[in-house]
Specification:
By secondary structure, the chain is an alpha/beta fold. It contains 14 helices and 27 strands. It is 30% helix and 28% strand.
Length: 498
């Protein structure tokens, strides 16, 4: 099969046709049924002219149609384009132009957002009628499938313009889908959006290994709905993105102890945003039989580092992740720093990597350099070795604040702020200052009833951070704005902080 995603899914469907592949709010599809629906949708897309390397926009929430569209595209050797359902019309038009997608499968209430030249396929009665009339035969695309077929995933664009990261199927399978924590034939509840890399990759990893994907059509995190699904479907893995998803979920467990039987839930995995230590501790207190896994990776690297915490152990205040031989910390000349040497550098990965950014050779050359014959992915995170197989991830270089010549990593300060009992959420940015160039500025949402002051938060930070890292400005907001995938919106934070 050569790592082709369609071939891998069809192999799972052939081997386990009657096993449950997908559960959406209690509605179920076997592997044979999901394969049949994906085949039919592939026929519908082919009638729209979709063939090898064409792009199909996916403007859908967490629905069966979302996964059907991904699989149908893979079967045709086409590329699904992940579209954030929170985009406004102008943003959507820009991304459709950038990705060259001229057919979009969309939610019923989002068709008006599409540009006139784009063909829409609306989820609902028309979609079902089209599938009923379509050919259920598995597609046999010209040239045959291979591990060299293409896959694209667009970055969230929380610090800049979204970029499409272009992978070969085989490389994506090796780097992002084949090695996730004990996925196997497990029941995986994806509580984060499928248009986000964490949600999409974890769902595909489960399906390709004959596991079951459980999702809810809700467009926001509804804790009681999530825990009810986890209980009824006897979920083993819960997938989310950072504190934005985890805080309301753990609050529901604390408010209703023993309401849900979650004995079979063994892994809570966060990808795309780190969990703060207090949230990790609360999850473990509420779910003592589970482990909490902070997975590190990026659209440009796949998943390649993790931090595991179990009941009885103290969550680490530092982002110390265990890594394999394919991960390195590079110096400013992009040469590996010896393992165990705690010099700060650039976190990098080698091995099965993306081809680069779609139609952006300049950005590709910068992020995927070749040095001394070795090709690296260097997405921009700063890190240092803690010991020979663990790295401390300091944060994105693009988010580094230069204050009086000292470098401050925003995410390190955010993690400390979120441990303050009066802080519900926080994001940190640099704001202009005549003396220091930039000063560390905290944009913070308070817990109900908390009266936050700069003095109190600065004192809290001084206990664990060097003085130059302590916030000098505080902006209190009702809510920290995050993307639908849970990542902080740094452009909004800079605007809010002035």
């Amino acid at each position: 099969m050569g790592g082709n995603l369609a071939d891998l899914f069809e192999a799972a469907a052939t081997a386990t046709p009657d096993a449950t592949a997908l559960v959406v709010d209690g509605e179920r599809w076997t592997f044979a049924e999901l394969d049949d629906r994906a085949n039919r949708l592939a026929d519908v897309l082919a009638l729209q002219g979709i063939a090898r390397n064409d792009r199909v926009g996916v403007l859908l929430g967490n629905t069966n149609e979302h996964l059907e569209t991904l699989l149908a595209c893979f079967k045709l050797r086409a590329l699904p384009v992940n579209l954030n359902t929170r985009l406004v019309a102008g943003e959507l038009a820009e991304l459709l132009t950038l990705s060259k997608a001229e057919v979009v499968v969309h939610e019923a209430d989002m068709g008006d957002l599409l540009p006139e030249h784009v063909t829409g396929i609306e989820r609902g009665a028309g979609y079902e009628a089209a599938l009923a009339a379509a050919d259920p035969t598995r597609p046999d695309p010209a040239g045959g499938r291979s591990g060299d077929d293409r896959y694209v995933l667009y970055t969230g664009g929380t610090t800049g313009r979204p970029k499409g990261v272009l992978w070969r199927h085989e490389d994506l399978h090796l780097s992002a889908l084949a090695g996730e924590v004990g996925i196997g034939a497990r029941r995986v509840l994806v509580a984060c959006p499928l248009f986000h890399g964490t949600g999409q990759w974890m769902a595909l990893a489960a399906l390709l290994s004959a596991g079951t994907v459980v999702i809810s059509r809700s467009r926001s995190v509804e804790p009681e709905r999530v825990w009810r699904l986890a209980e009824v479907e006897r979920v083993n893995h819960l997938v989310l993105v950072g504190d934005a998803f985890a805080r309301p979920l753990v609050a529901a467990l604390e408010a209703h102890p023993r309401r849900w039987r979650l004995d079979e839930l063994t892994v809570v995995l966060s990808g795309g945003a780190h969990l703060s230590p207090d949230v990790t501790a609360r999850l473990l207190a509420a779910l003592p039989c589970a482990m909490v896994v902070d997975g590190y990776g990026s659209t440009e690297t796949g998943g390649h580092a993790r931090m595991v915490t179990v009941a009885g152990s103290r969550p680490s205040a530092t982002s110390a992740f265990k890594v394999g031989d394919d991960t390195a910390v590079l110096d400013d000349d992009l040469r590996p720093i010896p393992r165990g040497v705690p010099t700060e550098g650039w976190l990098a990965r080698r091995g099965a990597l993306p081809l680069g950014y779609d139609d952006d050779p300049e950005a590709t050359a910068q992020t995927f350099p070749t040095v001394d014959g070795q090709r690296w992915a260097v997405p921009g995170d700063r890190a240092r070795w803690l010991d020979v197989d663990r790295v401390v991830i300091l944060g994105r270089g693009a988010l580094t604040i230069n204050t009086g010549g000292e470098k401050v990593h925003a995410e390190e300060v955010e993690a400390v702020l979120r441990t303050h009992p009066g802080v519900n959420d926080a994001v940190v940015v640099g704001t202009p200052d005549a003396r220091w160039g930039e000063v560390v500025t905290a944009v913070v949402a308070a817990e109900p009833g908390a009266d936050l002051t700069l003095e109190a938060l600065a004192g809290h930070c001084r206990a664990v951070l060097a003085p130059f890292k302590v916030p000098r400005r505080l902006v209190v907001v009702d809510r920290v704005r995050r993307s639908a995938s849970g990542k902080p919106d740094y452009r909004w934070a800079r605007s809010t902080a002035g």
